[in-house]
Amino acid sequence: MAEPRRRLDQPREPSRLRLPRFDPEAFGRWSEGIARYMGTAKFLVYMTVFILLWFGWNTLAPEQWRFDPYTFTFLTLMLSLQASYAAPLILLAQNRQADRDRFTMEEDRRRATMQKADTEYLAREIASLRIALGEVATRDFLRSELSRLAEELDEAAHRRHVLEREKRAHDAEEDFTARPKGQGARRRSR
After folding, report:
1. DSSP letter (8 states) at residue 64
2. How many CA atoms lie within 13 A of 104 on its CB side?
3. Are residues 78 and 70 in contact, defined by beta-carbon separation less than 8 angstroms?
């Protein structure tokens, strides 16, 4: 494939060293996995066994098989290298966890605000229902009012009945006293 022609009236773009691209999310997940593993007892046990084997090999093995003499310079270099990579990976994992915690906290705060608003709305609705129910007659109130009215009507009917009886008795007495004596006897005989 032929290279495209370059124009001579325009400066060339400086050539830059292009680093490989990586997915930050995938790298973050990978670093969290390493950080989680380094925080386990399993890692500590394996690291201790590795260092003890290193010490044992380089002190007890024959002289020609030892690869790191007594001061264990190579082991120190390896542990320093491991620590220099572990610290940033742990920090990266902590930053990602802090971002997740922040997002979760904001989501919880948003939900709590919505729940508070819903609760306040429901409290206002319940209060308005209580006020409205205070103005509405209940079943027990209606029963008591109807029984009171029935008693009043019974008493009024009884009074009317007594008054009518008294009036009839009074009218009869007036009739009896207003008639001559002989007429009253005739009426009775009829």
Report:
1. G
2. 6
3. no
